[in-house]
Amino acid sequence: MGDKAYSALLQDAAQMLRRIRSARPLPADGVAYFRNEFAISDAHDGNAIEGNTFTYDETRMLLEKGITASARSFREHEDIVGYKRAIDMLYSAYDRGVDPDEEFVKRIHSLVMSGKNGAGEYRTVQNYVGDILHAVHVPCSPGLVPAEMKRWGEELAAAPTGDVRADEQSLDKLFHSIAALHIEFERIHPFLDGNGRTGRLLMSYQLMKAGLLPIDIRYARRKNYYAAIAAWRDKEKYAPDPSAKSAKMAKLIALSETESMQKWLEVFGQYVDND
Asked: Which pLDDT tens digit goes with each residue over 106-115?
């Protein structure tokens, strides 16, 4: 943890997590409000990272009132609604104690890509990160996807589970674990489209399963997000410390998690003891 900014984020996250866990029982309507507000924000940012042109206000109007934006395409509308359905599914699965696995990931994808060919199905053709002429990464061939995802699913199942301890070292280990799994998922790129949205939603679910809050990686940080994925490839050949490959993504997760915690404390601070 040589990065001072990252260390400070871990310290802040640990302190806020201890406060959050000291909270008295929360009102059901307050929890529903927080979840809905997060879902709207994440539906906007999660799709904007992929090029969706909906504004935040247009996203809210569509999801809360069903009012469409005439200047936006039908597909963009579908993407916003599908993403929100996927978030709702995550909350439902969390409340029921569902553990994530390959089929769970396919379910997320099927909602993210609602109504589109290949929803919830592994790709059968070659795809590219970028485009075929200017690819920044060429994922494995389609014939290898099932085996690669089986291996990845085993790593997911072996990842830390249960409430993480509220200290810097435990949070650091968790963030690096989630970061590494996310980047490996994106490198496999198992679906023809929708991999980024599916992978980021899965990160939120892993955090929830660890007793933390879901995260919204802001559209304004899309360059940081893509740089974090690229850093894995750049450091894979020469970095002696495996954690160096996931350091940038772990830091972005930590930053996003502390922002979620800050917002939670703004909403529910009255239920937290200040001792």
From this structure: 999 999 998 7
